[in-house]
Amino acid sequence: SFSFSTTKDTSLNGYYIPKDTCVFINQWQINHDPELWKDPSSFVPDRFLSSDGSEVNKQEGEKVMVFGMGKRRCIGEVIARNEVYLFLAIIVQKLHFHAMSGQKPDMTPEYGLTMKHKRCHLRATMRTNEE
């Protein structure tokens, strides 16, 4: 979590916040805001694609807050976003993923320090040139 301390007595949306109060950003709420996201609790990776599905919609990706904000925003954000994009692009390009026979992956989120899906097993095979 990202936290900041107030430098002076202030108020925000009618709430009084004294000087030196530690304030946390509620990233979960921002990333699940129904005004920013259609059906925010559902796993919908397509929401980050253009309307025709041909490319990544970078404006939608920028709405996800994982690197903080303001002057304490993570300085490694640009390289981290690029690394994750390249890593996933290479994996998807090289491998084909299959559910184990008789099992369907359950993407119901589990909440804790981070949010993740329930544990599941997948089988990965190398893609052929025809795929």
TrEMBL record:
Enzyme class: oxidoreductase
Single GO MF descriptor: heme binding
Keywords: Endoplasmic reticulum, Heme, Iron, Metal-binding, Microsome, Monooxygenase, Oxidoreductase
One GO CC term on file: endoplasmic reticulum membrane
Highest rank taxon of the organism: Eukaryota
E.C. numbers: 1.14.14.1
UniProt record, GO biological process: hormone biosynthetic process; progesterone metabolic process
Positions of heme binding: 74
Topological relation to the membrane, as annotated: Peripheral membrane protein
Cofactor: heme
Cellular location(s): Endoplasmic reticulum membrane; Microsome membrane
Matching PANTHER family: CYTOCHROME P450 1A (PTHR24289:SF21), STEROID 17-ALPHA-HYDROXYLASE/17,20 LYASE (PTHR24289)
Family listed: Belongs to the cytochrome P450 family.
Protein name: unspecific monooxygenase
Organism, scientific name: Notothenia coriiceps (black rockcod)
